[in-house]
Amino acid sequence: MQVVTPKVSVIIPVYNVENYLSECLDSVINQSLKELEILCINDGSTDNSLEILSKYAKQDSRIKIITKKNSGLACTRNTGIENTTGEYIFFLDSDDYLVPNVLEKLYKDAINYQTDIIVSKCKPFAEKGAFDEYTLKRVEELNKYLNYNGDNNVNITTKNFREIIDNYPCVSCGSLYKTDFLKQNNLKFINQKVIHEDNGFFLKVLSTFPKITFLNVDSIMYRVRSNSISFESCKRENKTVRFNQFKIVLIDAFNYIKKYNPTNAKYLISAIKTSNTYCPYTSTIIKGIYTHIWGVDNKRIKLLGFPIYMDKLCNGKRVIKLFGIPINIKKG
Asked: Is the pLDDT of residue 273 over 70?
């Protein structure tokens, strides 16, 4: 019997989502695209999530369950990447669900455009009964952030980094990735239990100068709930934790870029340092560089915990080395 390669592998990290998991799985198994591999990575759930997965797996052979110790979302997605066999990969969080028949649309366009990544839209909504002011504001913010309105097909270049970083939502869900593209470029999430894992993955992906196709199509219903990881991380009282973890993610991303795509690193940092929307922590770091190290020559300092070097060149230009990568700057 000939083994058929799945057209799309849907990677679903699962952790204590018994109230949402059935809706998520139903949205996947009922897609019009049937050649699917549904990888459910149980990240040490302590509720009934594993029982729900097992019930569905008995009814649908496309569902594969991998159970491991709790290690966080980033590591769990990496487990999915390592075990996937499909032509394309689609990340789906287990408290969200797919728009009907959207995977077929994304797959056909990926084949048609011969693209590395298909970026679709996510539709955020408040969990039933969650109508407090903070939740509604978060939904409004995500409506703007999760949707990109730009050119249909984009080849990333040194000239359009800034536009992409300012407008392309750095979330992995809602995008269809060519599996060979991820594996050939050694693209994975940070292998630690941290938040902001998408930000680092986004930078790694862009550093490869991929071909991206943007579609004006909703693919995911993105649930905003009060006890989710992303919701909790956005609360003001967690600001210090959020910054420190973002720092870890950013260092990991630039270690990857220096190793695999060093010639593109300076363009990426230059785009980030002028970006207004990529991430508030990045803006804080860059502003700190301008404020605190201008005029400091040939010294290594620590700014917000980052090792930064400042050098003065013979031609009078000043250069900072952020993550060991030289970046030209000018005062003001």
From this structure: no
